[in-house]
Every structure is written in structure tokens, then in C-alpha cells.
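Pinned message: reference record for UDP-glucose 6-dehydrogenase
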Amino acid sequence: MNIAIWGDELAAWVATAELARTGNRVMVQSKEPGASSLKAEPGLMDAIQQGFADGAIIQVDAEDAYAASVHWLAMHPAHQASALELCSRIGRTAQGDIMVINQSNFGIGASDRLQAALPEPDRQAVICLPDTLQQGQALAQFARPTALLLGCEHDGARLALQALLRPFSSNLQQLQWMTRREAEFSKFAISGMLAMRLNYINELANLADRLGVDIEVVRQGMATDPRIGQHYLAPGCGFGGSHFTQYIEGLADVLSQTRHSTLLKTVLEENERQKELPFRKLWQHYQCDLSGKTVTLWGCAFKPGVASIDNAPALAVIRALEAQGVQIQVHDPEALPALKEALPDCASLKMFDHRYQALEDSDALLIMTEWPEYASPDYDQLLSLMRSPVVIDGRNLLEPEYLREKGFVYYGVGR
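Predicted structure (C-alpha cells):
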């Protein structure tokens, strides 16, 4: 099929690479992703470059892209007006049947509005395919999805979409057809549920700190109930990421406007407070005086496996440390370029390519991202490098009892 990709989000470039790999002719307006975090997505740049080399991906201007029979929209949430104008233009210039696949987070009801912008609804259909890709795993998730939610109300487009997605869904057990609005709502509902689970376990962990209870033991006890399980029950210093947060904020606004509910707004507010938890533990340990201190952060990405710091807890901690005049030393295996770009004027911030270099003369180590290389460090080297062996484990990555036996002062989240 001839497919035009519109947008520069992760979903747009992953679709470009995978649709080209499976025999389609894919048209884009740029040679490569613009954001450095997308360039760091495992395998993505290699797949795009291979697509260009094979001629399966071609760079065109917008006028040429209008002629495609399939249009894939993966645009930034702020560009809904541009998407509506685009659909209107596509609909007016189309010579035959067209299919518009909307993977953008424009809110509940947006795909219906895109459909209304097409002048010939019998021959021009909008399908909602919610973006369920996670940074760091996006290519594999697109190629081998565990489930697909498809919002389609046009029989002809349904058959065309089945043919397009067959390379990715032939062995799929969960392929659910629904209306466009139901597909959008489902994605928002999933994000909201996950956010509430994360918020709940963090609330329990904070309570466990006060009660002298190990939240890890409690979490394992909770997981024995099959109605609960272990998924998204890992206490820590808050969640980040742009897409996940956008969906939660979007649903929170809808709930507030239509139901006067503050449920998800409270979750978001509590999550912002949770991001500063490592700083508060450090502040209390040093009895509210951090003057002259040097603090090391291991990890600034919002999760392991990505180069993005979008809404990352590390940003909140760095800002709080900077306000106290602390010398900040940071290591991250992937996200330092993004951190440098986000905080170009932070004079108290130093970045290190090696994790142990970042520990020299440090008065505390704060673990902010659960990168695998932080899970089993050389503890003797940590003791020799640090001025004060204080570890604040914002991801409960390490074993508390062992560290305390080695001579560290250890603070976890509910441990």
C-alpha cells in the first residue's frame, strides 16, 4: 500500500519503519526523527535507514503525500487543528477511497471530528488505533503486539486495515473492534488505571515508612491475590514520561468537566510530590542543612531503556538541590544529552560518563532510575569514593539489610 505518515512522534517513526519493512511504500516529510530521544530508541534509526536504502521509505513534500490511499496520523497533541485541516485537504484532493489511521492523542471524540472533516464519508474513513507503544520497546511492540484496540465504523476500511496489519496480527489473540470513541476512551482508561495503581502503592510505601513495615514484603503479600497481581505495583519516586502523563491529564480534565471528579487530578498532584521524596529524605537526614554538600544522582531518564527525561523525577530533585546550593553530580547511560539540553544554565550540575566518577567526594547517592547497571555495584568502591556513605534508593533497587551491614546509611521507599 501507499502510505503517507504525518507527524514526528515516536509512533510515527515506528510505523514508518515497520510498515516499510513489511512491503509498503511509505512517504515521509523528513529524513530522520528530530528528537534525540527518538534517535536513541533501540533499533529505530537502523530500521529507518534500511528503509530509505531499500526505497521502501521515500521523502516527499506534502503535495505528493496527499495522493496516498492510506494516511497515518501520529501527531503531537497540540496539533489537533492541523490534523483537522489536513483531513479536509486530503478529502478534497483524494481520487479514490482513502483510509486515515489516527494514532494521535487528541482526546476522546477527536477521531469523530477528523471523520467529520472528510467530505465523502462513504469512501473516506477515519480509524482510531490508540498509541500503546512504550519508549525503549516500541519497535518490538509494533511488530508483535499483545493486543490491538481498533476503532472503526466503516466496513470497507475495516477490511483494508485488516490487510495492512496482518503481518503484525496474524497470531494475535486479542484484536478488539469497537467504535472510534470507545477505542480512545479505552486507551485513556488503561492509562488512568495504571496511574492509580502506581499512586496507591506509593501511598502504601510512604505509610510503611511511618509504621516500620517493609513495603516489599507487603507488596509480595498483595500479589498473592490473583485479583491484584504484581503489575504496576512497584513503589518508587514517581512516574514520568510525556505520553503517559498526557493521557492521564486528558482523562483527568474530562472527569473534572463532566463528573466534577478530582480522582485523577489528585493522582497527578500526589505523583509530583512523590518525585521530591528522595530530596526530602536527604533533607531530613542532614537535618535541613545541605550547605556545602555534594550529591550524586544515578539516573535521570524517566525510566530505564530510554534517553528521555520528560517529566522525570530527577528533574524535580535537581531543581530542589540547586535551590539549596548543592553541588550535583549525575550519571546516566543514555539521558545525559537530554539533561544538558534541558538544564543548560545549571552551574551546580556536573555530568559524568562513568557512574563511579560521579561518586567522588559525594555526601549522598540518590538512585533515580532503575538502570540494570546500578543494581549490583561494587560496594567497597562506593565506600572508598564517597565522603559520606548515604544511599537514598528511589527505586528500591538495592538490598537494604546488606547495605547497612556494609556500613551504609540506607533509605528506600517504604523500606
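Pinned by admin. Summary line: The chain has a mean pLDDT of 94.
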